[in-house]
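input
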Amino acid sequence: MNWLTPLAGATLAALVIPPLILLYFLKLRRRTQPISCTILWKRAIEDLRANAPFQKLRKSLLLLLQLFALILLALAIMQPQLQAGARRGGNTVILIDNSASMTATDIEGTTRLDDAKRQAKERIEQLYGGGIFGSSAGETMVIAFSDQAQIICRFTDSKPQLLTAIDRIQPTHGLSLIGDALNFARAYTTIVNPEAGLVSHDTTLELYSDGKLADLSDQVLRGEKLVYYAIGKEDADNVAITAISIERPYDRPNAVEVFASLVNFNTDAVVCDLQLSVDGLVRAIEEVSINAAAPDPVTGEIVPERSNVVFTPFEQPRGAVIEIANLREDDLAADNVARLVVPPPKLLKIALVEPVGTVIKIVLEGMTTIASIETIDTDQFEQVAAEEGVDNYDVVIFGNYAPPQGSMPPGRYLSFGEVPPLKGLNKYGEGGSAIILDTKDEHPIFRFVNLDKLYFSKSQLIQPDDDVQVLAETVDGPVIVAISRGSMQAIHVCIDPLDSNWPYLRSWVTFVVNAVEYLGNSGDALALKGFSAGQALTARLPASATEIVLHEPDDSTHQLQPQDPTQLSWGPIRLAGVYGLDWSEPTKSDKQHRLFAVNLLNELEGDIRPEKEIFANEQGNVTIAGSGSSHYTPLWPWAIGICLTVLMLEWWVYHRKAYI
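output
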């Protein structure tokens, strides 16, 4: 029960009820007129002669009715409201945010998601509680959302079904995006009328969230009613790991260097201990001081402070799971840990298609990162490409050879001289002698490579498409280009090394090593960055892989049966952590295993200070319900109605007594 104006009603009651009772206490004063018949009753009426101002209050139905009417009038002025379903008719869509920020534990004894589920269940009890003041609320739908929405329960008026559905909502570590949830709600509340077009039911959207919705302003449409229940405390404490990366120094291929970034969302400065672990063993702990978040002088919004940490490089010749952990406890544990899976230095398998000369093979034989070099002629390559593809090779190298049109399956290619039949490389002739005028020095293939002394007698002239990256060029046009189209990765050099002085220069060896390692490890470098919750976990397994099993961080497993193991996809990913894939291969006796890291690493989700107010676009109608607030049914009309009924009854009783 809620009272809007209790003071006004109490004041009215204090002013009118005591005078009414006083009137019934007062003794009526009459002038004494003796007559003969009263002499006999003189002794009985002598008490009337006492000069007493009050008489004993007697039982009076009129007094009770009048008191009851005044009390009802005072209660009506107090404007009581009963906590119950306020709307009558129409449907309700309950939207529950189960993103990463809703796993925060700033609410004592529970998470934000559990508190949102509790409030949503209380709302269901109000809508379908029954009774004279309950609402006829139509039907209700339940939708949970993070970066993707999920319909938990379609429209129903079954209270047990709705309560059970809300209990089934599980936390995720995804982002807060409400767009899909609103689209689901519209799909179930809009019907197509051939005469009137699109017609929407009278529906109210009720949102239970901390308000960190990146796409809300463009989502609420004209006529939509959104009621927002703010979840969480304003003083929520969080320091988040928002970035992690690992590199192998060029001069130390067996070592790794770890970088991390921390963000402080608190208005107080903090000191954190940042722990580096390798396969669960602690390698280093760094103390990090981060300044307090401060308001922006222009907008007034609180801007978080950040600090970057670089750990000393250490030897790691084999694969491992490297973990960065913030040992300072706060209200959001999901962004206190970040992991990356570091593969060991890869030993590459190379296919060399070089019809003339061995200048490329000499360089390859000196590389320690190559496991095998298979030299094949042009006919063998065309047969392998047509039958099996080139998945068995990490890099295929063409030495002044161009395969026939359509005979290059997806793979990773390094080619010299003749232009391969790749889309975007448009050959239009041959150029004469020239020197290199410009190079993209920031590209990995040019690390420690200087082409200033390179001279060549002829080259192939090409006109590349827009998606082809030009890495080096002369006055005649591009000389070195790169193509990156998903599973097709290629670097083409428009000159034959035998038509230049390049094999005699130091840059030749360095260039070949850089290009082979860049292509051979492309894709593996992306795996080091890990995945995010909400994405699909993708992997490229051998085509012969069978008995594929996926292991989640919570120890649950999934048997996967993809049609093509080389393009494995599973998801969306729900939780951050380390995922594992096991599979079998006919040629290997042991189970094969691969790990994948999934991290939060999102600054918006890390800022867990709840939004007490949210705003849609100018067309949307957003009502701020506030944390823990409910809908109320006003009771003052009932009090006025009963008061009038009591006054009519009092009038009837008074006139009945007057004439009896």
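quick obs: The chain has five domains: 2-83+637-658, 91-235+608-630, 239-345, 348-520, 533-597.
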